[in-house]
Design a protein that fits this description.
Number of strands: 8
Strand content: 15-25%
Strand order of the largest sheet: 1-2-5-3-4
Number of helices: 8
Helix content: 25-40%
Structural class: alpha+beta
Largest sheet: 5 strands, antiparallel
Radius of gyration: 19 Å
Order of helices and strands: EHEHHHHEEHHEEEHE
Amino acid sequence: MSHKYVYLFSEGSAKMRELLGGKGANLAEMTTLGLPVPDGMIVTTEAFRLVLEEGGIRSWIQDQHLHIVAEDDVEPVSKELQDRLSKLPVPAQLEREILHTYDRMAQRAGASVAVAVRSSAVGEDSEFSFAGQFLSLLNVPKQDLCKAYLRVVASLYSSEAMHYRFLHNIPGEFAQMAVGVIAMVDAEASGVVFSKDPNRKHANHVLIQAVKGLGVTLVDGKTSPEMILVSRDFSRP
């Protein structure tokens, strides 16, 4: 039976979280609702499993997690997992599908497209945030796309993510990663919107944190953002 390993945003929905991951499913849903979302695709969790199976390391990854019995065990296991994963070959069928779908994006744009390659792990953007624990790569050209895909997949086993799973009793051997590939846009400003202020959860406002240019300096904590409060009281003039 043949599998489809890559979906355009327009081909997905919020119901496909197990296949597209949290972030990918949300972006797909917004696209199908007609909201303004940059063009993009998701390399699915099925593709992740294919990489592990063809690389012969699926059971090895499970064995490695058995070595984690305390927080101090995370760092060396994380390094070994990431090193091994990032050096695996991308299966030929998956490589063809990734590059073919990229070409469809480029055809619609009328030119080659630099893309952001971002995590869309199962469980990400849920009650477990995993914020800042997985890798994002910006301005990736077509020739580096498959290598960037593997680097983002390997970040599923970053020490930060593995610590987080350990502390929240999330079985690490069942972690799965889909990967979003999103057309870059020229950004005058970027930001993060919190529908509820995380520091004042009972406050009746939306919190927006904004920076000039791309948002990577905001999400990695390297710059102090402008803070904007927007009232949720729609009865006010």
